[in-house]
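User: Hey, quick favor. My workstation is busy. Could you predict this chain's structure for me?
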Amino acid sequence: MKTAVDAFIERNRLLEQGQTVLIAVSGGPDSMALLHYFKTIREPWGLSLIAASVDHGLRGAASIEDLTYVKEVCKQWNIDFVGTSVDVPTYKKQYNLNTQEAARILRYQFFQEQMNKKRAGILALGHHGDDQAETMLMRLVRGTTPGGLTGIPVKRDFAGGKIIRPFLGVTKEEILAYCKEYHIHPREDLSNKDTKYTRNYFRHKILPLMKAENPKLNEHLWKLSQDLKEDEEYLQQQAEKLLEKVAVFEKDKKNISFSVSEFNTYPIALQRRAFHLILNYLYDGNSEDFSYIHEQQFFDFLTRDIANGKLDWPGGLWLQRNYGKITFHFNSSYKPASYRSELGIGDTYRLPDGSELSVKLTTCKNKEDKCTLTCDVTHVELPLIVRTRRPGDRMTWKGLNGSRKIKDIFIDQKVPKEARDSWPLITDQNGKILWLVGLKKSTVCSGGTSGEWLEINYSQPKEDR
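Assistant: No problem, here it is.
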């Protein structure tokens, strides 16, 4: 086994000469074999070794004895030791987590603290080929993306250094044989046999059946994970380029929007990865609450023939569609951008939600409706202005004694709060509000006999496809 692990480390460039390595050690066979292996390569690599052990407070005296055992072995092998006890049950209750997740969080917090304190560049973990197979099968059964089938990474960034897993290329059986060969007597955690935990169920019930059918299962799954990893790295790069071209990022990538028609010009494989990349940006890489169901919802949202819609997703995330535009935003931070543009005769202005305003000159006053405004050309100063509301905006209309705040009109008309800051209104060059589009028309436009009329039309065209 040692020869295989040596080659694995060289092939994947997991170590450098003279590094300080923190080794996660529980006292079980995997981590004890890992600790011993590093003891054998300490001098050739010039490594400084530190064993780190965590008592999760879940098995009473037994877990404390595990900690003591690791400490004693480290003393015999002349390896520095750091250990701690954490209160998983209290943390689990406080943050509404399951036992395994709470234990993992507290364990990695300790590792990070020690990495920083000891200035270690490497955290070595004892995951092996069987763990990789279990992880891939569990994700496949639960539902995952192609990226999820890459399994446990051989190395990744952590606490200013890297996590490495030198045993991913060997099996549990080989590790047990290694322990026997070198007279290592690991501790046994009885909870690892409890099949109420999903991983244990796969380990003791599912994996043996599959290995009986194909003894090279681990080897084949490892090859698959590496092929998928290489494919995913390339496709991820292309997805990043996609978003650079089509997406608009605001508030440190916490508001992200893009054009539906432009996004749809790319292959579905890149669209899918761009979607997950967006989630990574929004959740800082912690998007575990999302599943393939959310992906299906996204693509349904993207392809359905709808003008407007909204999805409420985990963590306060909203996915909002306004005609040709999709926006991801957190409810507390989202505010539509304001706008202002001149609108001359013959002009058409496309609003952010895809609707349009157009102006033309006519010699007859056509019948008005809620989407049309006509105004005697002599009563306004051209060009017109289309803009969003400003503090203190007021207007008047027929039958109103005095003027009224735009804010109060929105309230009276029951316009949703999230729509008010992007609602269009039209003024002339002197600032007179002529039309709160679709809601109120000013008395300025109600008279006149010059024979020339401005006709302003508001329309919601079908989305271009």
